[in-house]
Amino acid sequence: MGSGPLEVALQVVLDGRGLPVPDTYDTPSQSLQPVVLRETVCYVVSGVLLNETGEVLMMQEAKQDCYGKWYLPAGRMEANETIVEALKREVKEETGLECEPCTVLAVEERGPCWIRFTFLADPTGGVLKAVQDGDAESLQAKWWDHDSPLPLRSKDILPLIDLALQYRASPRHPVTLPQEMPYTVVSQRVVATFVNSSKDLWVLQSTVGNPHLPVTACNTTPTELRSSIKVAIYRLIKQCILLPQVQLKTCGILGLQHFGKDTVVKSDGVCFNVLVSVTHANQHLCNTPPELCGELFEWWRIGEGALKSTLLQRLSTLAVVPIYS
User: Fold this and answer.
1) Which fold has domain 42-169?
2) In the chain, where do the E strands start and end?
3) Which residues contact 2 (CB under 8 A, 6 or more apart)?
4) Helix (H, G, I), strand (E, B), or coil: what is residue 70?
5) Which end of the chain has a smaller Cβ tally under 10 Å, C or N?
6) What class has domain 4-37+176-324?
7) Are strands 179-180 and 97-109 parallel, antiparallel or unpaired?
């Protein structure tokens, strides 16, 4: 089998770019339905903006249940928005500043029905919201040195601020921004890898139709047990590998695709390109990839060259956007 198309697809994914919607999924749900924003899924955006001295942009809450507390500018996406448009809108509404995203810093999920995208972003204009400009969106905004006492709405933003400071000092992963390509469900394109002690490298591929990187999807319908991103990946690997014999690690996100605009088909879904590491439970037993069940998948060995070097580097340094479940 020629590996040319797979090499191209893998390079696209490693570059953080997007790939077209697949015709079928490699582990489809029996009742897979297009997701609908604010009905079956909720996407949240938040932004970490830093000034020249490393202070972080904060907004003071106007909502009754957290009135007067401080938080990162954040909020739910609205219909017919892209992820980046939602970020810019929330930052502008809550702080008065305009911004431009630098990279996705982290993705957090509570199952596929609540996903938060946190960005590192640069301020590009606007006027910082003062007390006299307070409204229903926020009371005011200010730059915080993240050390002085400040009553926070929640401490869950502190690790995100730390990620932003670390990334600004020494970027851990390449610039990663959402690619505007439509998807109908919450799905994952899986780059499942196996590396042996000699640094030989294999990538799992589906042989159904044209060979491709496997794609799976989350269950999001109320009548099913809703599956998280990591569970959906586990379900895919379980389909072709005897899991007690291997260890599976979801390393993080290489890229993501979303559009969200009105199209002929509802496209509120998102596709995550996810890097996964597969190892033998007992690494002394075998220097080759785990044996696969059936004929729907196979291991593709990557030859020497730039593609292999890049993938090994991303694996060894975890140069990916972290995902928290």
Assistant:
1) Nucleoside Triphosphate Pyrophosphohydrolase (3.90.79)
2) 42-49, 56-60, 70-71, 74-76, 97-109, 114-126, 140-144, 179-180, 186-195, 201-206, 215-217, 246-258, 270-280, 297-302, 323-324
3) none
4) strand
5) N
6) alpha beta
7) unpaired
pLDDT truncated to tens, each residue of the chain (325 aa)? Answer: 345 888 999 999 999 999 987 777 887 555 678 888 988 899 999 999 999 999 999 999 999 999 999 999 999 999 999 999 999 999 999 999 999 999 999 999 987 689 999 999 999 999 999 999 999 999 999 999 999 999 999 999 999 999 999 999 999 999 999 999 988 889 999 999 999 989 999 999 999 888 899 999 886 555 444 567 888 888 888 888 877 788 899 999 999 999 988 766 678 999 999 999 999 887 666 888 999 988 899 999 999 999 999 999 999 999 999 999 8
What residues form DSSP beta bridges with 126?
Answer: 97
**Residue 84 carries which side chain, given as an amino acid letter?**
V
- pTM beyond 0.90: the answer is yes
Token digits for 227? 């599956």
